[in-house]
Specification:
Elements (H helix, E strand, L loop, with lengths): L2 H9 L8 H28 L8 E5 L12 H8 L4 E7 L2 E5 L6 E6 L8 E4 L9 E5 L1 E2 L2 E2 L7 E11 L2 E15 L10 E4 L1 H12 L3 H7 L4 E6 L5 H10 L3 E4 H6 L3 H35 L1 H9 L4 H33 L1 H8 L12 H22 L1 H4 L3 H9 L1
Parallel strand pairs: 4-11, 6-10
Antiparallel strand pairs: 1-12, 1-13, 2-12, 3-4, 3-9, 5-10, 6-11, 7-8, 9-10
């Protein structure tokens, strides 16, 4: 790079440094998107897939959709008989509320193999007993810490007729508390054994548990497969059997909502940054060369050739692209790290600041693409101005 490049880049307002702000913004968007997507993927990989999600399949039941098999007792038995399936755990949503003290109203769910609760106090057993419950450490203004290890009465609704019901009480031992920021099933969820969750759901429907499980069925279920390589075959077999089945690993790797948009923005950002740098380089280089034709004409008369002038412009392009890349990566990284906390609340999984750092490949792309695109655009955009006769140009500017 010519020393003239640094001199003109710093001192001449018509140099290619005018492209720096736009390229910085593009590089920052790419870097921030990469950080957001990396943070979500890292949290999912650590807290979902790392806890056995690679061998799990999720079954869903859609009310009113006759094409999807309901998750009744017989249907779940058929799912459990598919070769490769180890066991099936069904989820029956219900509600637990304060029986005597407090005003909480907690959604109750079955603790499934897909729930990797971040336990803060107590011990989470391999399988919950029918009289055990796991609660958030705090929810709806209630601190559940004092209840740990105690057997507590909880209220639940028991239907007594069409549109009518009464309150009944179930006693459960609080065996563990989990971090309430973990909200995979919404805020303030209480986790129960499958039979206990089915009991509450059946009571709300006014049915005996066995009849409810066979007639109404579960809302969803988790199928645990013996080995990861069997997942695809089991999913196909379940789908052929009429189930709405999807591998947990596929579901979480194609992140929805904000994280899916971040992943899309990250991939589209590479193209936008490359094309933007190329177009911006061509336009800015053409404008810069035209604005400095008199200056370049004098340099050519004094013995500088077109290759040397082109090297000056290329040097300015490298400086501009490099400055934009570095500033964009720094700004995008700061933004993605700052979003780690709010994004943890959105996803319901803890995203650390290191999770939110963009990958080395994406950071390198944000650094290299502005330089490469601006340099190529400079070669294309400066050709016309540098082809002009320097003597005619100098005479025109002198007049």
């Amino acid at each position: 790079m010519s020393r003239w490049s640094l001199c003109t880049w710093v001192r001449d307002g018509r140099s290619l440094r005018r492209a720096v702000p736009t390229l910085t913004l593009l590089a920052a968007v790419l870097t921030a998107s990469a950080g957001v997507a990396a943070g979500a993927a890292g949290a999912v990989q650590r807290d979902v897939l790392g806890s056995g999600g690679l061998t799990q399949i999720e079954l869903s039941s859609f009310e009113g959709d006759a094409s999807v098999r309901p998750l009744t007792t017989s249907a779940l038995r058929d799912a459990g008989n598919v070769p490769g399936v180890r066991h099936v755990v069904a989820d029956y949503p219900g509600t637990l509320y304060a029986e005597e003290q407090g005003t909480y109203d907690l959604t109750s769910r079955t603790l499934t193999p897909g729930d990797d609760l971040p336990v803060t106090e107590g011990d989470l057993p391999a399988g919950l007993g029918r009289d055990e419950v796991v609660l958030p450490a705090a929810a709806q203004g209630t601190d559940f810490g004092p209840l740990l290890g105690r057997t507590v009465g909880f209220g639940y609704t028991k239907a007594t007729g069409s549109g009518s019901g009464a309150t009944d009480v179930i006693t459960l031992k609080v065996v563990a508390l989990y971090d309430p920021s973990w909200q995979a099933d919404g805020p303030g969820a209480a986790y129960l054994a499958e039979d206990t969750a089915a009991l509450l759901a059946a009571a709300r429907a006014g049915l005996e548990p066995e009849l409810f499980r066979e007639r109404e069925g579960a809302r969803s279920a988790v199928v645990v497969v013996a080995h990861q390589r069997q997942v695809a075959g089991v999913v196909r077999a379940l789908q052929d059997g009429g189930f709405s089945a999807s591998a947990v690993s596929d579901r979480v790797r194609h992140l929805p909502g904000l994280f899916g948009a971040a992943d899309l923005a990250m991939r589209a950002g590479v193209l936008v940054l490359a094309v933007g740098a190329l177009v911006l380089g061509a336009v800015r280089a053409a404008d810069s060369a035209r604005a400095r034709t008199g200056q370049f004409a004098v340099l050519r008369i004094l013995g500088s050739g077109r290759p040397e002038l082109r090297r000056i412009l290329l040097g300015e392009a490298v400086l501009s692209g490099g400055a934009a890349g570095v500033a964009g990566v720094a700004l995008g990284t700061v933004v993605s790290v700052a979003l780690a906390g709010p994004l943890s609340d959105v996803l319901g999984l803890p995203i650390t600041r290191t999770d939110a750092l963009p990958g080395a490949g994406w950071a390198a792309a944000a650094l290299v693409l502005p330089v490469a695109g601006l340099a190529l655009g400079t070669l294309l955009g400066s050709r016309e101005a540098l082809r002009r006769d320097p003597y005619l140009t100098a005479r025109a500017h002198a007049g």
